[in-house]
Hints:
By secondary structure, the protein is of the alpha/beta class.
Amino acid sequence: xxxxxxxxxxxxxxxxxxxxxxxxxxxxxxxxxxxxxxxxxxxxxxxxxxxxxxxxxxxxxxxxxxxxxxxxxxxxxxxxxxxxxxxxxxxxxxxxxxxxxxxxxxxxxxxxxxxxxxxxxxxxxxxxxxxxxxxxxxxxxxxxxxxxxxxxxxxxxxxxxxxxxxxxxxxxxxxxxxxxxxxxxxxxxxxxxxxxxxxxxxxxxxxxxxxxxxxxxxxxxxxxxxxxxxxxxxxxxxxxxxxxxxxxxxxxxxxxxxxxxxxxxxxxxxxxxxxxxxxxxxxxxxxxxxxxxxxxxxxxxxxxxxxxx
Length: 309
């Protein structure tokens, strides 16, 4: 046997004997949130990054549009990930209907797609991992009724970007909880995912509706905006405010009494579970549960410490 042939055979055998880990394909997974920044999405991203560090052969990236109303920006991000032929995408749609075609395009390209935090209208993704948002809205309404006691008047709703399915469901659940309560629920108003707009809308509401006794803010952006308006009007502590999410800004407002209660989601679970489920679907062909409820909990001053460890 020639020297050249012996060398070629040796190299071939070495390749066959390489550990499976060395030959394994890198699994590319992405989370596309509703925004690049924001305290809520920082929690999702941090949990996902920590999870990715424990997983072999996983390359993870978090991306998001400039704001929670940038539908086209989010579509462009997904289109780019399709071009890169990633293995899996976890998406929180800025606009539930508008993202439907893009999700279908990704699925048709063989990419595993799940939704987190908010679902698509078409529900053709492999799984939704997140809050039962109708239940979250109901929890907010029931909490608000307890806080008001026998007090009656008008209740205002500050919602986020129009078109987000999760927010529509929270408003639906909230209104259901207040049926028959004797409270007058005003038509919800949108802050479009912008805190400055939330402040302005809340201030206008307080001026035009002097009988407002409470607000429900269904996003982590709207809550601080309403709180600022209440402080400016010197109505903090007088008008009840129930918000969504447990972010540092909202915890501070809860502790100073401007916010009376928060409805906690589990953004950490959404980040962790979405990565694991995408990995299992992409590498093992695992069949995913179409719905994974990550749960909610009512947070007040008495139990907030366990959410801030």
